[in-house]
Amino acid sequence: MPLPATSERTSTIDCSDMPVRAINREIRAALAGNSTKIMLLHPGARHNLGVALPEGTELTIDGPAGYYVAGLNDGATVHVHGGVGWGAAESMRDGVVTIDGDAGNAVAAAIRDGVVVVRGDASTRAGIAMKGGVLIVGGSVGPMAGFMMQKGIIIICGDAADGVADSMYAGTVYVAGKLGELGADAVVEEFTGGDRDLVYSHLERWKIPAPAAGFRKLVAGRKLWNFQKADRHLWKSAL
Amino acid sequence: MCGIVGFLDRLDRPDFPTGRVVLAMLDALGCRGPDSAGAALLRSDEIDGVWAVRIAPGDALALTRLEPLGVVERVEHAAGSLRFRFRPGPGVTPEGVEVALGACRDGLEVLSLGSRIDLVKQVGSPAQLDAAYGFSAWRGPLAIGHTRMSTESRIDLSHSQPFWAHGVSDLATVHNGHVTNYHQLRRRYERQGVTFYTDNDSEVIGVYLRDRLAQGRSLTEAMADSIVDLDGAYNYLVASAEGLGVVRDRFGFKPLMIAETDAFVAVATEEIALRRAFPGSFRVLEPAPGRALFYPLAVTPALV
Amino acid sequence: MSDSTPPPGSAADPSPMERSGTFTPGVIEDIQIKAELARYRIRGFGILRPRTWATFDDLTFVPGTLTRIPLEGYREKCSTKTVLGTRFASQPLELDIPLMVTGMSYGALSRNAKTALSRGARMAGTSTTTGDGGMLDVERSESRAMIYEVLPSRYGINVQHLRQADAIELTIGQGAKPGTGGLLLGSKVSDEVARLRDLPPGVDQRSPCRHPDFLGPDDMVIKIEELREATDWRIPIFVKMGASRVFDDVRLAAKAGADVVVVDGMEGGTGASPELLQEHTGIPTLAAVCEARAALEDIGLYGKVQLVIAGGLRHGSDCAKALALGADACYLGTALLIALNCNKPIYVEDYHAIGAAPYACHHCHTGRCPVGITTQDPELTARLEVDAASERVASFFHALTSEVQVLARACGKSDVHHLEPEDLRALTLEASMITGLPLAGTNRVYGGGPGWASH
Question: If B161 and its partner were Cys, which of B40, B146, B263, C306 is the partner (CB 3.0–4.6 Å)?
């Protein structure tokens, strides 16, 4: 995607020789100076860029970011023009985080609301412990996507490796590509017209090419909600 | 718990600054492991019929004990270690050299032995490693490096990494994570007469590979076997005369990123190390858990 | 669920001559319950079996007599001021006393109990901690100093609450059950608790044992930096762990950048957990404090990284001994619940109805707490009257503080933080071996302390 044009209200920070603490301080200073658009150049996969940013902030990171980029997001819009490390957007309260490249382990971990878009592939445990919000992966995801998910939706346009939708309390995982071994208590449910409207409106909204194959819908079988002796075999693999 | 890095040159460039990029990667991972740093490098030139050996501490007197086994040549001292060439007599094994030198726990250690490998490590930062050994000037097609945050064992030279796979020429490993069935494995190998030189669980990886090789498995097969037999959380890298090995535990507990281009393969615990060491744009991937990858020298990688 | 330990003596009682010392009536009942249950047993409270290991009770203070001069109680003040988080935070946590409220969740506890703990702690000049369920508004408004826990489950994590915190506690585990996550049975997952945790109401909630986005101390370095960046390096970061491989774990937490390390011993409590974890995992609190201090000394950070000790601390002498052995502050949990009314002989028939009895209740997991503390049932929670309960919390903190002070003064200290190991003697060989303190009546140390220095 082309970088947005630099306007007068955009503050540009060249991260080349800066420690993370100084970069985040400059971001805060720019916000205090009434810039709402901030551009980071040469991020070099540094960790903890743009954490806990307030609503109204528009941060563009022109290159790869490390761990926890846009972590604890408080409503900001963050665009990463590259890949990201572990825990991108973790525990986001609200906001939008778009990642042009690939995402490391635990992207969108425990987010409560907002949208995370990964245009490339996501590694292990994508959307682990999600408590709401939407995670969209244009490519494939590694093992254990949606592990212990509680609410929200995950849309996977590529393949999902083993353990997808493992031990979810609730929430929905949509997968278009190949399904690995399903996680404990994951069940395939009918993909309805309502699901179709929801999934494809997200793909259109975030300009993700619709996959050739149709989507499967995975939800919690709810057998792990409360212990039942009759399900002890299921629990043996879950506990 | 540490940072690990690996590099493999695919263009056979004798002047490529391998030492410098490995140090740059280690430096970028400094916060993961402040306790010690080390690296193993494969030199381009093979010395026929001669072993290059590095021992620490640099006890020149110990070399007299090798006289019955062969010829010691070109002894060089560097930062408390000592490197020399050894022309073994008929039937002399790497293990025989270690025994003759008196290598044992808390005493003298053979850091590396082989026709191409050289290995240095010490307590302190990557910058200190460079200051002591001038590692940034080292050249060669393949290297692995390590920066350590000690967890359950001591901080000293011999507990630092890489570990030479004692007894196997030109084989060394670096490891990030922990092996949770280490004591069980160690006791099994000790019953078979294997000597352990440290209390570091990472040492068992080299011992394991050596055992599998002795049973006729290839290195790539041995690496694949280890995913079942070594429990816990680990990524480890293997430097051998054949190429660079990369192994991830079955759960993918520890981070690892690989950049693969036409010119090189670079592996590091975090992407930040790859971006710091290599300019230009290239894709960086996290390999799937439970995989052993092997990148042969100057050949495309094979998936095991 | 019928998941409680049977009252003692309820089993058939044959002649003692015919009883097995291995398969005791309790064991027989336990096996038969599990044969019905098909899983491990779950209960709350903490370890129940008799303490046969060395504890703080195996130490005694040696107050000033002729060699040293004790302080008077009236005019010769003994400071209790406590500062935590002096390493990196620009605003360390300043408390009037070295005793704090440990993390206990809304969910495990009722809203009234959380409110009373917050208000009582404020009245006593100390802090409260959120727990595995997010921050209640009333908890924040009633607290003077609020420690915000970031737990593996991330239930209720809200960056806007994080910013209101006076310290952050990154929790790795707890003393009652190191290596496993929290547990909240469906009977306590009320609509309100479910809403705050984003769970379906009524589910048996099992928290993960690990954080979702970091694994191991090397990745934790980056996580700690994230929390600091989110709060602009203003407030301290605590790292809390259950006492397990304490020496190594404490060194790693400090190396990873913690301002304060919290070590929670085996005697620590829990709202619900597999029973066998409470009984068979972890290191006792006395041993934990010794190992933790040795660990910080080993890496040269003792006095720079503060140490908070938790796990079954009951009275001033426990706390004073922990301080003398190296702690900077003590967390209290179960003792405060007891101050609230836990196990008090009131509503006795309701104890009996859940198979428990006053002084022997460990049924926090059922959500049927007769005194309204560990329950979400509106009728039961109403039994804990907030104003009176807050008073009891404040008074108990004052009582404990005065106990710590009286011991410190007796040892000639004008500051409770001046207590040192040499103010103590061991009463048993085992305590001498663990602490490195001389056995009373000898000048010899039997065992030489935590013994980790050879590492």
Answer: B146
